[in-house]
Amino acid sequence: MQKLASAIAKELESADHYAVYQPELDRVWPRNGKRRQALIEKFAKEHSWRVRHYKDGFVVIFDKEPPSKRN
């Protein structure tokens, strides 16, 4: 999970978003229904990102949490 977090952080330094596709998602978060989405959203929040788009079985798009929403 740390490797994925590092890749996302590096990309978001210069890009508006980062897409993670199914094969990589399955390695980090095995498919288990609604709980999977909650775990992904928790991961994003822990890194001050947000889940911009989630399509189970296909892709998650992360972006930076707007400054007004950061803790």
- Count of separate structural domains: 1
* Subunit organisation of the chains: single chain
Radius of gyration: 11 Å
* Distance between the ends: 22 Å
Going by helix content, strand content and strand pairing, the class is alpha+beta
Tally of alpha and pi helices: 3
- What's the arrangement of strands in the largest beta sheet? 1-3-2
Q: Outline the biggest β-sheet.
A: 3 strands, antiparallel
The whole-number mean of residue pLDDT values reads: 90
The arrangement of helices and strands along the chain is HEHHEE
Provide the helix percentage.
40-55%
Quantity of strands, as a count = 3
Spatial shape? globular
User: What proportion of the residues form beta strands (DSSP E)?
Assistant: 15-25%
- Low-confidence runs of at least 5 consecutive residues: none
